Amino acid sequence: MAPALDVLPHRHVLTLPNEPSAVRLARETAERALVEWGIGLHRSVVDAALLILSELVTNSVRHAAERSPQIVVTYAASGSRLAFAVHDRHPHQPPLHQAMTGTGGGLGTVMELTRQLGGTAAVQGDADGKNIWITLPL
Fold first, then answer.
1. Which of 69, 73, 103, 107, CA to CA, is 20 to 30 A from 91?
2. CA gap 95, 21 in Å, rounded
3. Whole-prediction pTM
4. Helix 106-116 to helix 44-64 angle, to the nearest 10 degrees?
5. 67 Rama class: left (phi>0) / alpha (psi -120 to 50) / beta
6. Nearest C-alpha neighbor of 119 from the set 74, 77, 70, 63
């Protein structure tokens, strides 16, 4: 289930072309938004969150570019939570909890880091593709 965004007062949405440069742009935008929202980049959870975000965008670039010329990244935060989603137009909804048994990289890394940080992950499909949501405690 996606986080209840109405309780997260800070939000930013970024639409990017689905190409390799999207990974860097999504990460840089996250860093700027966090600083603007008063969330220090020195927190260990921020480093992990940026890695998770990079992995999700990379997955969209690798697996969804043919069907999804754009990626939409949604960032949201409060004083105690950070959430973000990566949306692409590919209809496949990966089984996130099965990814934990993978051999590193990609969704396996996403799920392992999310679990270690006490966060949650969810896939939310819609008529236009899917969102993969990550919510982490700050």
1. 103
2. 26
3. 0.89
4. 160
5. alpha
6. 77
Q: How far is residue 123's CA from residue 41's CA, in Å, rounded to a whole number?
A: 27
Residues 6+ apart with CB under 8 A from 44: none
Q: For the segment 1-58, what is each residue's pLDDT rounded down to a tens digit?
A: 455 555 789 999 999 999 999 999 999 999 999 999 999 999 889 999 999 999 999 9
CA trace torsion 123, 109, 45, 88 (10° rounding): -40
For 85, how many CA atoms within 13 A lie in the half-sphere containing its CB?
22
**pLDDT tens per residue across span 98-129:** 665 555 567 888 999 999 999 999 999 988 99
